[in-house]
Prior knowledge:
The protein has helices at residues 14-21, 44-48, 69-78, 105-121, 156-173; strands at residues 5-11, 27-35, 55-62, 87-88, 91-92, 98-100, 130-131, 138-139. The protein is α+β, with helices and mostly antiparallel strands. It has a single domain (5-176), classed as Peptide Methionine Sulfoxide Reductase, Chain A (2-Layer Sandwich), CATH 3.30.1060. The chain is globular and about 35 Å long.
Amino acid sequence: MSATEQAIIAGGCFWCTEAVFRQLGGVSEVESGYIGGTMSDPTYKQVCSGTTGHAEAIRVTFAAETITYADLLDVFMATHDPSQLNRQGNDIGTQYRSAIFPLDDAQRAEAEAAITRWNAEHEGQQAVTTIEEATIWYPAEDYHQEYWEGEGQRNPYCMAVIPPKLAKLRKGFSERLKG
């Protein structure tokens, strides 16, 4: 059994981000949750109100010898719009911000490098992705976990948003997908 690491990222609706990262080889778990706010044990309804300061985020458990943290960040930057401040599409508010929550100094350096790479590849655009302190992680309610695999494929919002993200993933990162 290989050692695993974790990454915490926020790129809009966690249902959508989770669906992308579950497809990656080397990823053993993706958990939706909340991070970066001021309230203890926030609920989905509280986070959606935009008053808690939390972001909808995912915590990815991965095997670094199969997929690196830098690889995960490149997928993250490519499968959401890091140039939109506090929104992704129709999801608007700080809870939908683009953010990376590094767990150590090495991850912080990789996060800075990923943003720099994205900016260099997207002349005329600037990523507004923040690098924030990894505060207390709160898992989202059970019904949010593995949402795309369950309810999501019957949810019109998910059907409009997730398939294009998965298409970007397949187009740009086919070698990173689970076999």
